[in-house]
Amino acid sequence: MCWKLRLFLLPSQDGNGKVSRVIRIGTRKSQLARIQTDSVADKLKELYPDVHLEIVAMSTTGDKILDTALSKIGEKSLFTKELENALEKNEVDLVVHSLKDLPTTLPPGFTIGAVLKRENPHDAVVLHPKHAGKTLDTLPENSVIGTSSLRRAAQLKKRFPHLDFKDIRGNLNTRLKKLDDKNDFSAIILAAAGLRRMGWEDRISQILGPEDCMYAVGQGALAVEVRARDADILEMVSVLHDPDTVLRCIAERAFLKRLEGGCSVPVAVHTQVKDCQLYLTGAVYSLDGSESLKETMQTSIAAESEKVDEQVQRVGVTAAKIPGDAQDRAEKLGADLADLLLGKGAKEILTVARQLNDAR
Known about the structure:
This is Porphobilinogen deaminase. It is found in: Cytoplasm, Cytosol. Monomer. The protein is an alpha/beta fold. It has two domains: about 20-120 and about 215-360, Double Stranded RNA Binding Domain; about 125-205, Periplasmic binding protein-like II (D-Maltodextrin-Binding Protein, domain 2, 3-Layer(aba) Sandwich), CATH 3.40.190.10. The protein has helices at about 30-45, 60-65, 70-75, 80-90, 150-160, 170-180, 190-195, 230-240, 245-260, 325-345, 345-360, and strands at about 20-30, 50-60, 95-100, 110-115, 125, 145, 165, 185-190, 205-210, 220-225, 265-275, 275-285, 290-300. Helix 9 (about 245-260) packs parallel to helix 10. The N and C termini lie far apart (about 45 Å). The model is unreliable at about 5-15 and about 60-75 (pLDDT under 50).
């Protein structure tokens, strides 16, 4: 690490670091969402043993609409809106999300108070049992691969032209059942992080490296969203921040924000922190992957100053204990890389991709 993360205990009225009130955590109802939320609750319980945690589960729009590709629904907050409504009405105090589900601009009054250490962000291939031992390269001609992601399909169509790609919706359990119980798909592509959190690593046939398929912005990271005005909750969850993950995801989100990307366009990233340097590779694709633009840039994230501004949000993230200058450089890296691609024609590629997707 290029600097020390400073931790503060949540202050209480009697000055002994104890908090007695109940903290309500909002989450989606799916098994994976519950596992992710429980992992955050366990960390908070460990840090603050006197806090009483209550988990409030609810269904979101994205959970309810299962017959339409995500990219076609046209709603940016598919998996977050109902949870944010509960946060706004004070029905919950914080919400646990997969960071990749959170738009780069949050509704007024909300902020991401913690970005936890990232799980493996890459995509994974899960094969139908009859194809055990194969890879995407060795699957038969015209094998059907299920994915609901334009980003995955665009990259993999170009890389594996002998395969066909079709939409598949539902939570992890539903998609695996569709794969195993029918012969509609030879394989499906899922985030490795979700499979690992569910304890289903044995279903991973192949991890796709960046040369095959770069990942989605924020993929593999969990985020805790809070009301920006709740200084005590913000302080409490801030100790969950993983500095490298925060800086990588600020750069990724700044890249996506400048491109004005989302679910309806194929945008992919790859980030790495090495020797106090943050490397960001970003790419945009046409829907069939035939056109693409891809570049890499880097910046130093060594702290030059310990100065922090507790009120500053960067692409929705508040990380008061991570040096502000390192966060500023990460955000600038994302925006600069997007500008580089925009200067080479990224806007035109994404506009056509959006129009073709809308017309499908």
